[in-house]
UniProtKB/TrEMBL annotation:
Pfam families documented for this protein: Ig_3, V-set
InterPro entries noted in UniProt: Ig-like_dom, Ig-like_dom_sf, Ig-like_fold, Ig_sub, Ig_sub2, Ig_V-set, Zig-8
Protein name as catalogued: Ig-like domain-containing protein
CDD domains: Ig
Superkingdom: Eukaryota
Family matches, as SMART domains: IG (SM00409), IGc2 (SM00408), IGv (SM00406)
Originating organism: Xylocopa violacea (Violet carpenter bee)
Domain Ig-like: residue ranges: 35-122, 125-228
Length: 241
């Protein structure tokens, strides 16, 4: 019996030893309990000047660790948790209770904000994930020259394209001088805007000298563009607005 008990104890020790060998760490040091990044989030973001940018960092198994946002070019700490650690209040950390997402919001971004930002977790050693932000200047362009001369009775046909915009503008307005073009003011005016192609067409049929003036294409999220239109009378002299 003693021999049997001894063999049993030895077997038990080997069994226990095998468990310790495969799980040598405490609970918090085990791989499945460590924080890690969800790599399904977008790491490249483009926005236009003045349009808020959002960088989404998703951390699983965060536990009691803290999430910080760091600006890579100068290693400046922007936020820790939901607190802002910079005098530049355009930077803000957004986090919903019970979620894994920590979002860096940059209000009114400028071209100088272009660069790499790191989402950092206070593990030991620290882990981080890089996000690249591009801030571009979106501009409207009216095809053709900056001045347009046409004969009285011909059509004014202007095409405006919005360049360097990550998203189609929500609207594109046309102005004559300081006033939005009023379709009821005279007949023969039509505007066709194609949001997906970021293009807008202005057509004024049978233009008269009174239609001469400065025409501006003004998208919602881009710098405007203008063209000066001269409708020539019979003497073919420019009619100034």
């Amino acid at each position: 019996m003693i021999l049997a008990d001894s063999r049993f104890n030895q077997c038990t020790a080997k069994s226990v030893g095998s468990v310790v060998e495969h799980h040598p760490s405490s609970y918090w040091e085990q791989p499945f309990s460590q924080p890690y990044f969800d790599n399904t989030t977008r790491r490249e973001t483009t926005t236009t000047v003045g349009q808020s940018a959002y960088l989404h960092c998703r951390v699983r198994n965060l536990g009691d660790r803290a999430v910080s946002w760091i600006r890579k070019r100068d290693l400046h700490i922007l936020t820790v948790g939901i607190l802002t650690y910079t005098n530049d209040q355009r930077f803000q950390s957004l986090h919903g209770d019970g979620t894994d997402e920590w979002t860096l919001k940059i209000s009114s971004p400028q071209v100088r904000d272009t660069g790499t930002y790191e989402c950092q977790v206070s593990t030991e050693p620290k882990i981080s994930q890089a996000f690249n932000l591009s801030v571009v200047v979106s501009k409207a362009k009216i095809n053709g020259n900056s001045e347009l001369y046409i004969k009285s009775g011909s059509d004014i046909n202007l095409t405006c394209i919005v360049l360097q915009t990550p998203e189609p503008p929500s609207f594109i307005y046309w102005y004559k001088g300081d006033h939005v073009i009023n379709y009821s003011q005279r007949g023969g005016i039509s505007v066709v805007t194609e949001k997906q192609t970021r293009t807008s067409h202005l057509l004024i049929s049978r233009a008269l000298p009174a239609d001469s003036g400065n025409y501006t294409c003004a998208p919602s999220t881009a710098e405007s563009a203008s063209v000066l239109v001269h409708v020539l009378n019979d003497s073919k002299t420019p009619i100034r607005p």
